């Protein structure tokens, strides 16, 4: 994927411009969460629990389709993280 194809897709479809900025923020939060989980930090669990429902709702709002597999994966991942929460710093 290139910047040109992304720009052409924006012009041809009715994609809301704030969704691109939201995607950048979610990507940065995902990176921070991944680093925090590798370091076994509690803030990563709380961060993930906070931004995943917001992300799922925004995807539903923008596309009109709810990603059930994403919600199931997130729920399983949260359950695993909560199991190890006491061992984290």
What's the alpha carbon Rg, rounded to whole Å?
Answer: 16 Å
Could you tell me the strand content as a percent range?
under 5%
Shape verdict: flat
Domain tally: 2
Tally of strands: 0
Helices and strands, in order, run as HHHH
Mean pLDDT: 81
Structural class: mainly alpha
Largest sheet composition: none
Number of DSSP helical runs: 4
N-to-C terminal Cα separation, in Å? Answer: 38 Å
Helix content: over 70%
Query: Any low-confidence stretches, pLDDT <50, length ≥5?
Result: none
Topology:
Layout: H1 3-12, H2 18-38, H3 42-63, H4 68-83
Keywords: Membrane, Transmembrane, Transmembrane helix
Transmembrane segments: 16-38, 68-85
Description:
This protein has 4 helices and no strands. The termini are far apart. α3 (42-63) packs antiparallel against α4. It folds into 2 domains: 1-39; 41-88. 78% of the residues lie in helices and 0% in strands. It has 89 residues and is an all-alpha fold. The protein is flat and about 40 Å long.
């Amino acid at each position: 994927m290139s910047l040109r194809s992304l720009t052409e897709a924006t012009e041809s479809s009715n994609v809301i411009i704030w969704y691109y900025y939201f995607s950048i923020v979610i990507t940065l939060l995902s990176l921070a969460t991944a680093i925090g989980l590798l370091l076994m930090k509690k803030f990563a669990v709380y961060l993930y629990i906070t931004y995943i429902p917001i992300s799922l709702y925004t995807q539903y709002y923008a596309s009109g389709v709810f990603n059930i597999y994403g919600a199931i994966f997130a729920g399983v991942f949260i359950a695993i993280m909560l199991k190890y929460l006491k061992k984290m710093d």
